[in-house]
């Protein structure tokens, strides 16, 4: 089809409609004021409109894949990606290598070995497995990455293995398990020299997952990996290593979250900005095209409870990464958070990639989002926001100084606090965790052991809700019944009890046996509740009723033999000190500090009053 024909309307009888006309009609149908309610303001500061048109397309769109600046990926033939299974190595390496070989025989095309401790890795045994030859094999080392890399390459030579056939990356993650760390600057020159005969082995892996898994913004993730990459280039320049040599052996490791279209745009924006950075060093487009992007599914959104929902999350996250043009992809097993994944969960995670290739044919179409008014506009806005943040980091002296001054950690902490608040308010939903809990779910793991495990990830969106649920499960396993929570609604103006509804849903999600009782006045409530066996009592009243929440009321309730935690369903405002003096332990309301309630209930009810020993 030629250009003239492509612009010919399919139906001549319809008059073309521009964006202004559409917006005018929407405002008319929604009576003007409601139009603004359709605008979605994201955490990144991007305003998402209810519709997009040709007018929203950025100028100078890349016409083809593999065209500079590579927004449409660097792929020219197909949308191939490696299906990489992550395998943790904690003691002996041979069982992990056997497991990797089995995975490669069952659908994986790559393996990422993560050494959690400085163990002796048996590279000879690795090369004895024929299925490993030509596979995408990568490593994360906790110490001395240059030493491990030398052993790997020496062993390859001893086995007469062509180094040009080695594919993969080398990543460094310190054993101290700090969330944010510096690249291994001092060993970079040696590592670059070691891989001079292994053109498809990337010794410099810049990771954004350490920040993303803590809940940072997508634009922050882009800016942080770019800033870290620039710091590596500058360090190597000072040691007489040309930028081209460094850039051509560098890989980015990012995560994919559940914000579907944003995650697609994130990878496109990253390539756009990376091309700009490469150009700033006076290098041509072929150097920028060497960039590899490895993506793993985000831990931030995964949950312990109702874990099969993680399969849905993992699938949409994987699709975003693939449609965004990742080069390799690791999908976490759905049960990874609370136990060592078994063969079934690992097979399911591998098969997500297999299905996306063999049944959805996503490996056949390169950048299918190209030309989308929404995605193209989103790519541009995300690139602009990420570049602004990149400039902020550079203004702080670059990645190293921003990290050492704790600027980065403080910035991410502010964002995660906002996200936790949004989850508490139900503005953001984690299905099965802060909304729609699975009441019939049977827990098949030891909640106390999980809470005490050093491998239990406490830096996820679901953690504040999970810790309450885990404590509740501990109570259930000991007493063979759920902890009881009572919501006492006092007064007849039911429309004033939205905080009581919030409290009920909160304790339902924590797997309490939750009941709601209605009383006309405080006297009736005190009479009924003074002998109630609930471990948590929430009192909700109208503004007039709160005036009658006096010392006598709380004393009668707290003096029963079960000594319940007493919570007021209201915003504290100016009443906080007064109500605490009257005997209330906490307030609960939409937007409250969930952590304070969790700590109070867990400590005073589930751990002190119901000891497990």
Automatic annotation (TrEMBL):
Q: What is this protein called?
A: Methylmalonyl-CoA mutase family protein
Which InterPro entries does UniProt cross-reference here?
A: Cbl-dep_enz_cat (IPR016176), Cobalamin-bd_sf (IPR036724), MeMalonylCoA_mutase_a/b_cat (IPR006099)
The keyword Transmembrane belongs to this UniProt entry's keyword annotation: no
What is the species listed in this Swiss-Prot or TrEMBL entry? Adhaeribacter terreus
Q: Which UniProt keywords apply?
A: Cobalamin, Cobalt, Isomerase
**Domain named Methylmalonyl-CoA mutase alpha/beta chain catalytic: residues:** 148-449
Q: Superkingdom of the source? A: Bacteria
Cofactor(s) recorded for this entry are: adenosylcob(III)alamin
Family to which the UniProt record says this protein belongs: Belongs to the methylmalonyl-CoA mutase family.
Keyword hit for Isomerase? yes
Lineage at the top is: Bacteria, Pseudomonadati, Bacteroidota, Cytophagia, Cytophagales
């Amino acid at each position: 089809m030629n250009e003239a024909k492509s612009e010919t309307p399919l139906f001549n009888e319809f008059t073309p409609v521009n964006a202004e006309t559409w917006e005018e009609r929407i405002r008319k149908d929604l009576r003007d004021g409601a139009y603004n309610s359709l605008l979605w303001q994201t955490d990144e500061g991007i305003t998402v409109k209810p519709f997009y048109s040709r007018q929203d397309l950025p100028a100078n769109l890349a016409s083809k894949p593999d065209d500079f600046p590579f927004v449409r990926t660097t792929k020219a033939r197909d949308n191939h990606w490696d299906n990489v299974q992550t395998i943790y190595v904690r003691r002996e390496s041979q069982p992990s290598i056997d497991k990797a070989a089995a995975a490669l025989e069952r659908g994986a095309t790559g393996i990422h070995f993560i050494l959690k401790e400085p163990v002796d890795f048996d590279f000879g045994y690795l090369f004895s497995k024929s299925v490993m030859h030509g596979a995408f094999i990568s490593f994360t080392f906790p110490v001395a990455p240059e030493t491990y890399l030398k052993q790997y390459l020496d062993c390859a030579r001893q086995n007469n293995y062509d180094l040009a056939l080695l594919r993969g990356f080398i990543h460094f993650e310190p054993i101290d398990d700090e969330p944010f760390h510096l690249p291994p600057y001092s060993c970079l020159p040696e590592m670059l020299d070691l891989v001079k005969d292994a053109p498809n082995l990337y010794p410099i892996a810049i990771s954004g997952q350490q920040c993303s898994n803590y809940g940072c913004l997508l634009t922050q993730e882009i800016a942080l990996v770019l800033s870290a990459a620039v710091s590596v280039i500058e360090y190597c320049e000072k040691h007489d290593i040309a930028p081209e040599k460094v850039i051509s052996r560098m890989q980015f490791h990012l995560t994919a979250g559940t914000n579907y279209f944003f995650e697609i745009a994130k990878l496109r924006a990253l390539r756009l900005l990376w091309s700009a950075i490469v150009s700033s060093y006076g290098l041509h487009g072929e150097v920028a095209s060497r960039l590899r992007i490895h993506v793993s599914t985000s831990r931030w959104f995964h949950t312990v409870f109702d874990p099969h929902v993680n399969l849905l999350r993992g699938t949409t996250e994987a699709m975003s990464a693939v449609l965004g043009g990742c080069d390799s992809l690791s999908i976490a097993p759905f049960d990874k958070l609370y136990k060592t994944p078994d063969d079934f969960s690992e097979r399911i995670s591998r098969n997500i990639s297999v299905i996306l290739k063999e049944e959805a044919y996503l490996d056949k179409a390169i950048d299918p989002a190209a030309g989308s008014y929404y995605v193209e506009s989103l790519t541009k806005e995300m690139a602009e926001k990420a570049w602004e943040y990149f400039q902020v980091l550079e203004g702080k002296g670059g990645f190293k100084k921003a990290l050492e001054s704790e600027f980065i950690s403080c910035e991410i902490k502010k964002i995660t606090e906002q996200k936790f608040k949004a989850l508490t308010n139900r503005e953001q939903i984690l299905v099965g965790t802060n909304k729609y809990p699975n009441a019939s779910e049977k827990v098949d793991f030891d909640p106390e052991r999980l809470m005490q495990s050093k491998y239990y990830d406490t830096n996820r969106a679901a953690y504040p809700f999970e810790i309450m649920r885990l404590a509740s499960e501990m109570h259930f396993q000991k007493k063979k019944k759920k902890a009881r929570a009572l919501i006492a609604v006092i007064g007849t103006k039911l429309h004033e009890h939205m905080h009581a509804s919030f409290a009920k849903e909160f304790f339902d999600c924590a797997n309490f046996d939750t009941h709601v009782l209605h009383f006309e006045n405080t006297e009736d409530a005190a009479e009924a509740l003074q002998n109630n066996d609930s471990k948590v009592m929430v009192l909700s009243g109208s503004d007039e009723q709160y005036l009658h929440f006096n010392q006598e009321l709380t004393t009668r309730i707290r003096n029963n033999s079960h000594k319940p935690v007493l919570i007021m369903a209201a915003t504290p405002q100016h009443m906080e000190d007064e109500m605490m003096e009257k005997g209330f332990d906490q307030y609960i309301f939409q937007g409250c500090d969930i952590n304070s309630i969790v700590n109070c209930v867990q400590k005073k009810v589930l751990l002190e009053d119901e000891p497990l020993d």
